[in-house]
Amino acid sequence: MTIKLGVPSKGRLMEKTFSWFGARGVGLSRTGSDREYAGAVDGVDGVELVLLSAGEIPRELAAGRIHLGVTGIDLVREKLGQWEQQVQEKAELGFGHADLIIAVPGCWVDVDTLEDLDAAAAAFRRKHGFRLRIATKYHRLVREYLQANGVADYQLVDSQGATEGTIKNLTAEGVADITSTGDTLRANHLKILSDALVLKSQATLFKSRKAAMDDEERVTMKALLTTLGLDD
Amino acid sequence: MAGKAIIRARAAALTSQFEAVGAVPVETPVLLPAEALLELYGEDIRGRAYVTSDALRGEQMLRPDFTVPVVQMHMSDGAEPARYTYSGEVFRRQEEDPSRANEYIQVGYEVFDRENPAASDAEVFAVMQDALKSVELRAATGDIGILAAAVAGLETTTRRKRALARHIWRPRKFKALLDRYSGKAEVPQSRATLLAADDPMAHEFLDIGLRSQSEVAERIDGLRHDMAAEPISPLQVELIEALLTVRETLPNALEHIRDLAVDMPAITEATFRLRDRMHALEARGVDVESLEFEASYGRTSMEYYDGFVFGFYVPGRADLPPVATGGRYDALTRVLGQGREIPAVGGVIRPSLLVDLEDAA
């Protein structure tokens, strides 16, 4: 049988993952037509490339359907409870850098810290009759972070895309989102809270703790990790 | 862990016991509209409850506890005074500890009675204790009302008192605020800079969102006001901290808190309530001489308890959840009652734990 390696199926993340493996002697490539999600692995025998959406890779690792997977640490922490029991971090790949931050309108000159956000949320709730809304797709991470930092009177509203636009559209008062340069935030008239870095993320190679391996697969896993210059 | 049929039978025995002392059995839905629960508990409830939805009714929660539906039922069509009992599954997400059950049966006893709060507190505690007498448990008690009264009585601005009262249930944040207001912690640099600016409202951003510039200006006024306000005196901070560390048997705790009340007259009323409750407990046959009282007890649990709080624990087993918990939640009836309110106190037992303990005995 084979060791299954899950890699994001499109875009820069896929290309950079291919280069990272290529630079270490493991050739990853797509096969078939442009639209077909099939791939090949050169340099190590017995490894199968599985192309997946980056967001599904944590779940597939936890279910043991893939042995290794490349995805963001943000997605692993958001989607997996007790993530350290389910996957093991093997290597940070040095790209896909993104910080999960909390941002509010720049015109809120009185809000710079989480303490300010909490106080503003209390006043907002008294005035508007509902809790201050923060748009995000990282519900678990953001909720745990705000809870640990004593912020109350807020609610999370789900936003799977174009999150920075929610404030102008009056569907949220703040956002919690991934940013790499902050350009999109500034373009949308937002500023980042100075003390609210929820998580620093980058593309990371994870090994499943749940995927079963027979003797042959163990040998393959060891060979692959050795080729990549990683400890088993 | 005992099988479900055994746990159900034990739960049924508990409800009959509660019926025998006057409680009316009630049923509530398992699926609850999410809105009321979210309004009440805030976002934290999503971390604890299972949320589901359909296209017609929107978000629903799998019953995380009985209190909210029982209060809603009572407020809409209950006669007063009322005593209720119920039994059924509650559902709690357990994302960090797989050994904790995410579905278990609760049996409860709730009293809605305006007449004599101290007697009602004592009644619920005594009924619970009696229902648990087959096993040896450690009882813990507290009173959120004393702490709330102490905060309300601080010699400082209304704004600060309101902020502290809001965070009674978040001890770390409460401490941070107290440090700030007493001058122990410095004002953050960004705030100092803002308040020192010629025009703090000046900015280069587009004005967007529902929170208006007048709300921003209002808060800046508040911050100025706060900067100008005298720090809370070291004596008052000391008193609050002394109150928070009170942990002894109920009669000793009462003496201790009475001593503190000499310098904190605002808690005098609350100490009377504590005394009345102690006498009521005694009248119910509870051994108050050995009953533990902890002023900070209940601060990290659900936010709705605002007076008497209690729990029954397995001695030496900090890993187990409490076998029973309860308390007074007058404020919750105010929130759910849309203008009406009724003093309410109640408690719940987890019969699965009780069965396990009885089997082990």
Automatic annotation (TrEMBL), chain A:
This enzyme's EC code(s): 2.4.2.17
Keywords: Amino-acid biosynthesis, Glycosyltransferase, Histidine biosynthesis, Transferase
Residue ranges constituting the ATP phosphoribosyltransferase catalytic domain according to the UniProt record: 54-226
Record's catalysed reaction(s): 1-(5-phospho-beta-D-ribosyl)-ATP + diphosphate = 5-phospho-alpha-D-ribose 1-diphosphate + ATP
Stored InterPro entries: ATP_PRibTrfase_cat, ATP_PRibTrfase_HisG
Source organism superkingdom: Bacteria
Protein name according to UniProt: ATP phosphoribosyltransferase
Keyword Glycosyltransferase (UniProt): yes
Pathway where it operates: Amino-acid biosynthesis; L-histidine biosynthesis; L-histidine from 5-phospho-alpha-D-ribose 1-diphosphate: step 1/9
Protein role: Catalyzes the condensation of ATP and 5-phosphoribose 1-diphosphate to form N'-(5'-phosphoribosyl)-ATP (PR-ATP). Has a crucial role in the pathway because the rate of histidine biosynthesis seems to be controlled primarily by regulation of HisG enzymatic activity.
GO MF entries: glycosyltransferase activity
UniProtKB/TrEMBL annotation, chain B:
Pfam family, one: tRNA-synt_His
Location of the Aminoacyl-transfer RNA synthetases class-II family profile domain: 1-351
Keywords of this entry: Glycosyltransferase, Transferase
InterPro entries named among the record's database cross-references: aa-tRNA-synth_II, aa-tRNA-synth_II/BPL/LPL, HisRS-like_core, HisRS/HisZ
Gene3D superfamilies for this protein: Bira Bifunctional Protein, Domain 2
Superkingdom assignment: Bacteria
MF annotations from Gene Ontology: glycosyltransferase activity
Keyword Glycosyltransferase set for record: yes
Homology family: Belongs to the class-II aminoacyl-tRNA synthetase family.
Quaternary structure (record): Homodimer.
Record's protein name: Histidine--tRNA ligase
Lineage: Bacteria, Pseudomonadati, Pseudomonadota, Alphaproteobacteria, Rhodobacterales
